Amino acid sequence: MKLTHVIESQQFTVPLLMELFERTRAMERVLARGGTRDYEDRIMATLFYKSSTRTRFSFESAMTRLGGRVLSTEQAGEFSSEIEGEQLEDTIRIIANYCDAIVLRHHEEGGAARAAAVSSVPVINAGDGTGGQHPTQALLDLYTIWNECHTLDGLSVALIGALDQGRTARSLAYLLGKFERTKLYFIAPEEMQIRPDILEYLDERDVSYELLTDATKALATADVVYQTRIDRDRLAART
After folding, report:
1. 188-200: pLDDT as tens digits
2. Arch. (CATH architecture) of 137-238
3. Angstrom distance (rounded) from CA 116 to CA 102
4. Which residues of the chain have pLDDT under 50?
5. How many CA atoms lie within 13 A of 103 on its CB side?
6. What is the pLDDT of residues 101-137, one digit of tens each?
7. pTM over 0.85
8. Three-class secondary structure of residue 209 per DSSP
9. For residue 71, which of 45, 95, 175, 217 is within the disulfide window of CB 3.0 to 4.6 Å?
10. Are 122 and 102 in contact (CB under 8 A)?
11. Is residue 125 within a helix (H) or strand (E), and if so which, with residue range?
12. Could you tell me the residue ranges of all domains in the chain?
C-alpha cells in the first residue's frame, strides 16, 4: 500500500506498519554511516502555523541527512498572506509549486486534510488543532514500543495526561487499536478524558479499554506507560 499524504493514523494497516518499521531499521543504518545524497534534488517545505521546535527540527534534520533541502517557517500564520485573509487552500496551492513535499502544522483541527485535498505534492500532518492528530509522532512512539517489547500484540498500555486534546495520545490510540488482544487504560481527570470518537473506533474493533482517574491499577499491570503533559493553565483552571 502506498500513501500519497500522511494525515491520520487510521490510514495505516498492520502490514504497512510492519513494512514501515523494517524500512526504519534500514534508515537507522543509513544514519549510522552519515546519511545519504539520494534526495539532493528534492525540497521539503515545513509550513508551521503553530511553533514546535522539536517537531520541525526532526523533519528538517531528516531531510538534510537524506541530502535534500528545506524551506521553513515556524510562524506561517503571522508572516503568510493568511493575516490578510488568504485561505489555507490557496496558500497550499502556491507553496506546492516551490517544493516536493509539505510538512504542515496547523492551528485548526482538520487543517492537514484540507491542505491534502488541494495539494499537488504530498502533505504530512505534523499536528493539527488542539484535539486533532499527530500521526508521525505516534508512528515513532509505536516503533519505540515495538523495539522495546518485540511485539505489538497482547500489550496493555496506559495513556496518561490531558487526553481530550492530546494529539499524540489520540493518534497512538488509533494505531494500538489495530493489534490483537490490546488493552488500553486512559488515565485523566474526567474533564480531560479521551474523546468519544476514539472510544467508538475501539468499540468497533472490540478493543478492551478502561477510563480511569487514578493510575494505581493501570501502573500495576501495564506493559507500557505513555505519559503526556497537562498544560499548566488547564491545571490552574481546576483549582
Report:
1. 999 999 999 999 9
2. 3-Layer(aba) Sandwich (3.40)
3. 9
4. none
5. 26
6. 999 999 999 999 999 999 999 999 999 998 899 999 9
7. yes
8. strand
9. 45
10. yes
11. strand 123-128
12. 35-128, 137-238
pLDDT of residue 176: 98
Do 35-128 and 137-238 agree at the fold level?
Answer: yes
Q: What is the pLDDT of residue 86?
A: 78
Cell numbers of 52, please?
A: 514546535
Q: Exposure of 36 by Cβ count < 10 A (0-12 exposed, 13-18 middle, 19+ buried)?
A: middle
Q: Find out whether 60 and 72 touch, Cβ atoms under 8 Å.
A: yes
Q: Can you tell me the distance from the alpha carbon of 225 to that of 217, in angstroms, rounded to the nearest whole number?
A: 12
CB 213 within 8 A of CB 188: yes
Q: Which fold has domain 35-128?
A: Rossmann fold (3.40.50)
For residue 29, the surrounding DSSP H or E stretch is helix 14-32
Cell matching residue 119:
495539494
